[in-house]
Amino acid sequence: MRLAHKLAIESDLVSADMVEASEFPQLVNKYEVMAVPKTVVNERVSLEGALAESHFVEAVVQASS
Predict the structure, then answer these.
(1) Going by fewer Cβ within 10 Å, which terminus of the chain is more open, N or C?
(2) pLDDT tens, 46-59?
(3) Which domain holds residue 42?
(4) pLDDT for the residue 59
């Protein structure tokens, strides 16, 4: 989540939100959360678990194309 927020700070084209899964069960169901962290990019790409920074950035760029 830190990296997502860092990207959001650096670019007006990126926004990031973080929610507590136990407080938002409807989002857990909607996004089929099975592991945390879970990152959803543009409702198209989802990533679960901790990723290397380079893989995370690559996925975000790919999802924005």
Answers:
(1) C
(2) 889 888 999 988 88
(3) 19-64
(4) 84
Place of tokens 């973080």: 18
Which two three-digit tokens encode residue 31? 């996004």
33 close to 18: Cβ distance less than 8 angstroms: no
- The SS3 of residue 45 is strand
Domain count, the chain: 1
Q: What CATH number has the domain bearing residue 51? A: 3.40.30.10
What length is written for the chain? 65
What pLDDT digit, counting tens, does each position of 6-30 carry?
A: 989 998 988 999 999 999 999 999 9
